[in-house]
Amino acid sequence: MKMNKLNISLMAIAATALLLTSCQKKDKNSPGYEYMGEFDMYRTQSYKAYEDNNVFPNGLTMQNQVEGTIPHSFDREKMINYMPFPYPNTLGGRDSAIAFLKNPLQKTEANMAEGERLYNIYCIACHGKKGMADGPVVKLLDKRGNMGLLPPAYSSDQAKNATEGQIFYATQYGKGNMGPYNAQLSAFERWQVVMYVQTLQGGGTSPDSTAAQNDSIH
Amino acid sequence: MSSEKSSTNHHLKALLVAFFLVMTTAFSWAAGNPDNGKTIFKANCARCHYVTDQKMIGPGLAGVKDRWSDEANLHKWIKNSQEFLKTGDKYANDLFAQFNSSVMPSFNLKDEEIADVLAYIEKGEAPVVTEGPVVGPGGEKTDSKGSTSRNIIIIVLVIAAIVLLVLARALSTVSRSMDNISRKETGEDLHPERTPFDFFTNLWKWLGAHKKLALFLGIILSSWLSYEAFMALSKLGVYTNNKPEQPIKFSHVTHVKQNGIDCKYCHSTAEKSRHAGIPSSNVCMNCHKAVNEGPKTKRSEISKIYAAIGWNPVDLKYFDNYQSMDPEKIKKVFKEWLAEEPGSFEGMEAQIQKPVKWNQVHVLPDHVFFSHQQHVKVGKIDCAECHGKIEEMETVEQFAPLTMGWCINCHRKTEVQFASNGYYERLHNYYKEHYGEYEMRKGQAFTVEKIGGLECSKCHY
Fold this sequence. Notes:
- The complex is a heterodimer of chains A (218) and B (461).
- Chain A is mostly helical.
- Chain A has nine helices and no strands.
- The relative contact order of chain A is 0.11.
- Among the domains of chain B are: 34-148, Orthogonal Bundle (Cytochrome Bc1 Complex, Chain D, domain 2), CATH 1.10.760; 252-351, no CATH class; 372-459, no CATH class.
- In chain B, 53% of the residues lie in helices and 1% in strands.
- In chain B, a hairpin with a 4-residue loop joins β1 (311-312) and β2 (317-318).
- In chain B, α1 (2-31) packs across α9.
- Chain B starts with a helix and ends with a helix.
- Chains A and B meet through α1, α3 and α5 of A and α8 and α13 of B.
């Protein structure tokens, strides 16, 4: 009888030891334990950018800018980011953009360099370094026999005469399987990109672009 | 009295010996006998090859030995494939052409090591391999496994200790009652009745008799305990290697490494805001309108994007008024779309008409302010310095500890990028006007510390 008692107490000690040493997170997706959590300033009650929010009908904390409003700014050049885009997403809208939409930015070296940098982030995946439609995504998909994201080379007949309005329009609404880039890039930045794309329409200005053409998958 | 003491003594000795026995066997078992070829393969080849017949960047390697007529050639190929191609071997050149002339890098491996690798390939891997992420190019992560096997060891040790204690206890009781019988005969004093605490009283007595040893043991035990406690407490709230599962098996290996997509294509606010941002489903659709199945997960995972955003993969257009549509109609479309992949529909059903809820990986406490814009745009720091090799991770994992010491150390040693940095133009000109040439810069590293990067209020406010 007494021995049982001892055993029980030993068992209890062992069990606690087991609990302490082999303690694992129950929920695989929670990062783990912290000291005070909500009782400290660790986790405050303020809404975080990506949190659910029951204040707004769409349940998100990050809300779009209220339509028709413009952020306060002294940078006049960047005001185009907040101006409404006057050409609708229709065939007629596209035609008039091709004819009348003009680049409001100066062709400065800084704008051009920034355009190139942005192009190398956002467009290169499909259009390729020199606009020869040989980006890594296109190359990989070609191995799978999927031509869905194959764009025309900028220097091809199909695209070499595209006006700056047409290029900007493509980044605003997308075209075919190309998606719109108006969420990732502001209008100001897209005009910088357009400026750089226009230099690629000339095609083989540099010697290695002919090599790129041979590599590309036509 | 003396026999009493010696019995406890035996007791303890037996326990100690047994304990060490268990310890040593447990640890030799944990270290195991690692399969050499597998290690080499994982380090060098796994990012391009599966050991099954599934293709990745290179061909699946199941049965290569049979495909190559001469094993010596195979060794040459693995050491330096480009060199071997020059011999004009037809099989190799055809293979090279078949893989769009992608170059397999050369490896500085010994012949025995290559033999190990080939042996590993021949043995193959359990069928789980085709599951994708498990042996994806990023390789299997050993962390979780390591910690479970450690836990198993601990559990085994504890159980062994309990069993030993109980045994020792039972034995000593038996020997006492035997002893009592003989004592009764000789008329000696009997052993006193046992109490639940006599083990401890005996221990206490024994320690009292060996004061120096007891002191020594006590110091070791208490310093070990406080070290362990300190380490355990200092790890609270530090989540290095935090690796939650994600609702969509999105892989940075596929997208960054294989598709060459820039980090900022998806994390496009990294230069503009404190958050690098998680891409919305619209961004995924830039490509996934046209890419409706992947090599590993087929349609099952990509269709979750469609379900979240309301794309009809059959008609190739967005559903009208998706959020207010009858869910049954949507389910019918997706059931049909996933008909050839049993189980897929059940896996994605919950995503219908719901936004994708990614699980957060990095979580700083709310009392700290951290901005990506300041570090990426102004400081010109590469993502990899703080996030590690994301492009090798099938599932994103926290790389840096994100402790205050980590931030501060970097601020102490990283220089501010003044050169052609628009952010500092105004400041630069101001200093020039007021103080002439910028004296502070000359001859010494101008670290973040110098612009106040260690001030509490820069990060806590």
